[in-house]
């Protein structure tokens, strides 16, 4: 009983009632392999030659070594990050200046410059005729960007106390902020309707501890005239072959506008992707083609350039750049045979522009839309271009 | 202070030693605290990676990680298998510590591997390997916790362990983001630090967790059924108590909607804004952290079984709130608090209850069996819930889940009458007695 009393004191002393309920029982002492087992003080018995003090010393030594490795890794990464603020040798020249998104004012390209230096990640502009020439930087940083009809959409990171959050910023032609919307995840696609009224974007959501490796996308559409925001296309009524699509696993991404009411986008469900044709007035969409990701409608509205998962491609590089003729439903490959992971843009009715991974951020390439020719480098260290003027 | 690992020795020795770390407050054995520390450290490491992974894939590597979750289903099955294997291996010769160390070590080695691979399939493979390590170590670790705690305080021991574990999970993302603050786009630094932290976890395990469980150092098990053979592990299901408990865990698991669906419902039904979406799991974790110890202790007092089933009432209440038409700013907090208390009342408590129905020599296999049954049931529920959502919409799917959960609770209470008091302290004790 004296032994059991000890247990009570150490174990459940904070509650007198509990102590009574966990009545002293013989089995506590008679636990299999108790002291009778002949190994009192496991800590001593197990690691011969290493007392508590010895083990603490070993621990201390390990902590010191590991802390050094960790410290060096962080220091090196920090130094490397700092290096990116210095202009790279042979990189494009970038100067601060004025960038306009106005519909007039000469044919030009506005894009996110990824060139190392003080203007890294800022919106920059170059004349359409000299894509590789000196860049004029705006001071506005964006991860993703698009502009049309005097309206710009800039998806940017916001430095928080601990981690970065993201927001969508609607810009007028003078790059002034007209609306700011918090984002649920990492920006990936952005588009503006030709008139500049409708704006859409897609973010990746996921990666929290419970969702594991399950990522999903969220695509939102904003009417800048009325201020109406559809936070997710999942609120749309989507039909496929006449029946409503209502799966929990639906994901939408890559909106491309035909006009202020109609758009195309990608819908994924059940392991397949579909090109959908949507209507912002009725909030409905229908599937029109399969195996289409990140569609991009040609300026004349007749064709869609997109990423197609091709059979036989390796699973880490599954996509090729294709063009679909909407009237005939016929599709053809472009002359770009490398894997592509971008929502292409049309610089005119015959030419596609898209980003490829490069040495300093990504590089912009161009290829004819009709399947002829060969891909050509447009400019280095650039992403998310929009042709204006 | 490590002397207290000898909880199986005479209580007179145990008592002062067990109070070594928190004098007068805690009677949790040093082994449990050591295992808790290992889990805390390891969770910091793994959550560091989890927190930056999407960012790394999208902005670091420029990949589109969609369809990434497709392998999850396949992998869940494999993970269950690994868990059973880990449980069985640990029981053979009482090798809990080596098998756990193998699991922790494997996960640690995956971190530098992440630096070497740059494509989605390979990254997926590394993550799968990481989870293999997790599967291997879970059952031996839980067995060690139960073997180094007196039966009547097991609920508390598991509570302390789970609270420490969850603390690590909350600290991990913080550590990762602080590194990215120091070094923009320094994902390699995050992975390297994550490896160092994981390695430290393995070191703590090797140094401070006893390699032989006290309960296994006694006389050899009397009957063949308690020798840790594969046949004995399978034969565990012939034990009425354990079978009853496993059945209940499965039945209740079949009505437990996966966390991601709960968060999705929170957002869709209660209008949680996008920018808070990523923080929802933190709410659950915070409630889990705060309640794990109190509910574990409560389970020791009133019966683990009661608290385990009671936890499902919390989940049922969470479903109810999600289905309600009330729109109140406090509702999301209430749902997360209920969700967290569901975990606090069930996760460690189930292990504490199961430990009482499994002989010490087969502890690891037995716990693996219960865990696997529960995990498999929850996986089936996820698939069914997804299908119901597709067919009838989210609200009807959740209503169905709520009804199923209520029925499961009723069924469990009936099953319990068959395997009476399986998890109560008294019976846990007598279960131990039978083993000796």
Automatic annotation (TrEMBL), chain A:
Signal peptide: none annotated. Residues 1-24 have a biased composition (Basic and acidic residues). The keyword Membrane applies. The chain crosses the membrane at residues 56-75. Keywords: Membrane, Transmembrane, Transmembrane helix. Pfam families: PD40. Residues 1-47 are annotated as: Disordered. Residues 31-43 have a biased composition (Gly residues). The keyword Transmembrane applies. InterPro entries: 6-blade_b-propeller_TolB-like (IPR011042), WD40 (IPR011659). This is TolB-like translocation protein.
Automatic annotation (TrEMBL), chain B:
PROSITE patterns: MFS. Keywords: Membrane, Transmembrane, Transmembrane helix. The keyword Iron does not apply. It comes from the Bacteria. The chain crosses the membrane at residues 20-41, 53-71, 112-129, 163-183, 189-209, 245-264, 276-293, 305-322, 342-363, 375-392, 398-415. Residues 31-420 form the Major facilitator superfamily (MFS) profile domain. GO terms for molecular function: transmembrane transporter activity. Signal peptide: none annotated. It is found in: Cell membrane. This is Major Facilitator Superfamily protein. It comes from Actinacidiphila rubida.
């Amino acid at each position: 009983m004296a032994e059991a009393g000890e247990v009570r004191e150490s174990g459940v002393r904070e509650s007198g009632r509990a102590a009574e309920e966990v009545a002293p029982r013989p089995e506590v002492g008679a636990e299999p392999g108790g002291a009778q087992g002949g190994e009192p003080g496991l800590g001593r018995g197990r690691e011969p030659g290493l007392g508590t003090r010895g083990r603490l010393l070993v621990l201390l030594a390990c902590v010191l070594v590991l802390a050094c490795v960790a410290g060096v890794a962080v220091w090196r990464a920090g130094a490397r990050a700092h290096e990116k603020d210095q202009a790279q040798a042979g990189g494009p020249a970038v100067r601060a200046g004025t960038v306009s998104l106005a519909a007039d004012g000469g044919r030009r390209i506005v894009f996110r410059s990824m060139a190392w230096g003080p203007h890294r990640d800022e919106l920059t502009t170059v004349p359409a005729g000299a894509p590789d020439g000196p860049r004029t930087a705006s001071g506005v940083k964006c991860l993703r960007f698009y502009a049309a009809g005097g309206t710009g959409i800039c998806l940017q990171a916001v430095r928080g106390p601990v981690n970065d959050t993201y927001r969508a910023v609607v810009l007028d032609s003078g790059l002034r902020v007209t609306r700011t919307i918090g984002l649920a995840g990492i920006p990936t696609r952005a588009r503006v309707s030709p008139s500049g009224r409708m704006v859409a974007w897609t973010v990746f959501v996921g990666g929290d501890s419970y969702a594991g490796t399950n990522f999903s996308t969220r695509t939102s559409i904003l009417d800048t005239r009325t201020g109406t925001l559809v936070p997710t296309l999942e609120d749309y009524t989507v039909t496929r072959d006449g029946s409503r699509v209502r799966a929990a696993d639906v994901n939408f991404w890559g909106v491309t506008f035909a006009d202020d009411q109609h758009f195309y986008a990608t819908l994924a469900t059940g392991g397949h992707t579909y090109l959908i044709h949507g209507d912002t007035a009725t909030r409905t969409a229908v599937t029109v083609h399969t195996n289409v990701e990140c569609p991009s409608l040609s300026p004349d509205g007749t064709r869609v350039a997109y990423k197609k998962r091709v059979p036989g491609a390796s699973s880490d590089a599954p996509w090729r750049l294709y063009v679909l003729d909407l009237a005939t439903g016929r599709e053809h490959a472009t002359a770009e045979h490398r894997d592509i992971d971008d929502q292409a843009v049309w610089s005119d009715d015959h030419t596609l522009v898209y980003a490829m991974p490069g040495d300093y951020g990504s590089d912009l390439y161009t290829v004819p839309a009709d399947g002829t020719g060969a891909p050509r480098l447009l400019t280095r260290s650039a992403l998310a271009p929009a042709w204006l003027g | 202070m490590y002397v207290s690992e000898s909880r199986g020795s005479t209580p007179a020795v145990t008592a002062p030693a067990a109070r070594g770390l928190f004098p007068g407050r805690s009677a949790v054995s040093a082994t449990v605290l050591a295992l808790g520390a290992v889990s805390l450290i390891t969770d910091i490491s793994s959550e560091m990676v989890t927190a930056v992974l999407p960012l790394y894939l999208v902005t670091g590597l420029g990949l589109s990680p969609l369809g990434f979750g497709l392998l999850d289903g396949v992998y869940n099955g494999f993970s269950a298998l690994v868990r059973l294997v880990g449980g069985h291996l640990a029981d053979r010769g009482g090798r809990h510590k080596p098998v756990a160390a193998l699991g922790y070590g494997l996960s640690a080695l995956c971190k530098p591997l992440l630096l070497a691979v740059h494509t989605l399939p390979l990254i997926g493979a590394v993550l799968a390997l990481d989870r293999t390590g997790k599967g291997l170590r879970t059952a031996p670790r839980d067995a060690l916790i139960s073997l180094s705690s007196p039966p009547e305080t097991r609920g508390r021991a598991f509570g302390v362990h789970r609270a420490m574990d969850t603390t690590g999970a909350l600290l991990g993302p913080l550590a990762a983001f602080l590194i990215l603050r120091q070094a923009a786009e320094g994902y390699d630094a995050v992975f390297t630090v994550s490896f160092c932290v994981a390695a430290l976890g393995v070191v703590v395990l090797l140094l401070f967790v006893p390699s032989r469980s006290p309960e296994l150092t006694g006389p050899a098990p009397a009957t063949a059924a308690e020798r840790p053979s594969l046949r004995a592990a399978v034969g565990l299901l012939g034990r009425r108590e354990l079978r009853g408990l496993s059945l209940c865990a499965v039945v209740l698991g079949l009505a437990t909607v996966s966390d991601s669906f709960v968060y999705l419902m929170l957002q869709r039904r209660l209008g949680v804004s996008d920018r808070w979406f990523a923080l929802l799991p933190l709410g659950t974790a915070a409630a889990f952290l705060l309640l794990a110890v109190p509910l574990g202790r409560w389970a020791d007092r009133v019966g683990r079984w009661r608290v385990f089933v009671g936890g499902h009432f919390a989940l049922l209440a969470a479903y109810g709130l999600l289905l309600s038409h009330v729109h109140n700013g406090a509702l999301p907090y209430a749902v997360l608090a209920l969700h967290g208390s569901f975990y606090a009342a069930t996760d460690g408590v189930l292990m504490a209850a199961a430990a009482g129905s499994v002989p010490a020599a087969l502890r690891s296999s037995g716990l693996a069996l219960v865990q696997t049954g529960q995990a498999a049931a929850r996986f089936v529920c996820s698939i069914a819930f997804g299908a119901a959502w597709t067919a009838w919409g989210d609200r009807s799917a959740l209503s169905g889940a709520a009804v199923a959960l209520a029925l499961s609770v009723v069924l469990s209470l009936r099953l319990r009458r068959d395997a009476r008091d399986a998890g109560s302290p008294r019976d846990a004790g007598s279960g131990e007695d039978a083993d000796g």
